[in-house]
Design brief:
2 domains, Rossmann fold, six-stranded parallel beta sheet, globular
Length: 365
């Protein structure tokens, strides 16, 4: 069975999207699917492109896929939803090839990353929703997104398949750390984007409640990098680790005091959140401190594997770090429960199996 996997987002190692795309593809291939990934070429470089250049690349990628759709070289098309992926949805419909669309956020979340794009909301939102309406099935990563997508699909073919973790790779690992990284430390890793709560963490580390001996380690890249670098030059408590490879990340997570996920944008109240870093942190037997948004807060509360704090609250974050620092036995218990939960219910292999079943269901209908 042949699948064309379209991802117009440039996924780079160290980002959640890269792990999600490649872990699902790996799992499908293990289940005898022939999967071809279509993504922008600049995903494999550090090149910074203008919006015009990116759009040209989106067109090129979809044009290369269009030829193969016209020749009926694929049984199904899997689309990671993007405002411009409607072109492939339309072509697949024309050639009577079913599509499955994966939804990772609301259309309005585009405006968080690219504020200027809000002026074209009248265009982006209908294009995005077209891909959902034309799909045979929709996969959403949070229950809030499942409910949102059902309003457009007008049937029950919307499935909840959240993020997961590679539980063989992400496990307690105690290899040597770089000499620049001082223990104990609280860890954030991922895209340095406005909605990640970077400002909350930088404020929390300077709050009186933050433990004196605990460092704040930040790994990743993105538009907030200059702020992090500047903060690290002025505070010995802050350590910037740059981007860490996917395979090395468990070493840094496992030896951290806790994982920090202080998401800070109100749109998450509507869409919910199940970020990849939550699953990877818990899989390494490390408790997580998360903002009180649907999805991740529910998982942490139900699993008793971390602390939930109000969004945009540096004092609450500092106090949560202190609480875990001062109670090593509680920290170990939370970490143990988190690891057991992820292995039992949230591995990438389980997510690939669920995706496999959705694809089979679409093809046999």
């Amino acid at each position: 069975m042949r699948v064309a996997y379209l991802c117009l987002q440039a996924t780079r190692e160290g980002q959640a999207s890269h792990a999600h795309v490649h872990e699902i593809i790996k799992g499908l291939r293990q289940r005898n699917w022939q999967v071809d990934l279509y993504e922008p070429d600049y995903a494999y470089t550090n090149q910074r492109l203008s919006l015009h250049q990116k759009i040209k690349e989106f067109m090129r990628v979809q044009k290369s896929l269009a030829t193969r759709l016209r020749n009926h070289e694929y049984d199904i098309v899997y689309i990671r939803l993007h405002p411009l992926s409607f072109l492939t949805s339309r072509r697949a419909s024309r050639y009577k090839i079913p599509t499955v669309v994966e939804v990772n956020g609301l259309p309005e979340e585009l405006y968080i990353a690219y504020p200027a794009s809000r002026y074209l909301s009248w265009l982006w939102e209908p294009l995005t929703c077209y891909g959902i309406r034309s799909a045979r099935a929709v996969i959403a990563v949070t229950m809030s997104l499942v409910m949102w997508a059902r309003n457009y699909l007008n049937n029950d073919q919307v499935f909840w398949i959240p993020n997961g973790a590679n539980t063989e790779l992400f496990r307690p690992t105690y290899e040597p750390l770089p000499s620049s990284l001082r223990k104990p430390y609280a860890l954030f890793f991922g895209a340095l984007a406005p909605w990640q709560g970077i400002d909350v963490m930088l404020a929390a580390v300077n709050h009186p409640a933050w433990p004196d001996r605990v460092s704040l380690a930040i790994a990743g890249d993105g538009v907030e990098r200059p702020r992090v670098v500047e903060a690290a030059t002025h505070s010995p408590r802050i350590i910037y680790l740059e981007t860490i490879s996917y395979t090395k990340m468990p070493i840094f997570i496992s030896q951290s005091l806790c994982g920090l996920i202080p998401k800070s944008h109100q749109v998450h109240k509507k869409s919910g959140l199940m970020p990849l870093k939550l699953f990877e942190t818990l899989a390494c037997s490390v408790p997580a401190i998360v903002s009180d948004y649907p999805g991740m807060a529910d998982l942490v509360r139900q699993g008793e594997c971390g602390i939930v704090i109000p969004p945009d609250d540096p004092a609450a974050l500092a106090n949560a770090v202190r609480h875990l620092y001062e109670q090593p036995e509680l920290r170990a218990e939370m970490g143990k429960r988190g690891r057991e939960l992820i292995v039992r219910e949230h591995s990438w292999d389980a997510r690939a199996e669920a995706t496999h079943q959705v694809l089979l269901q679409v093809l046999t209908r």
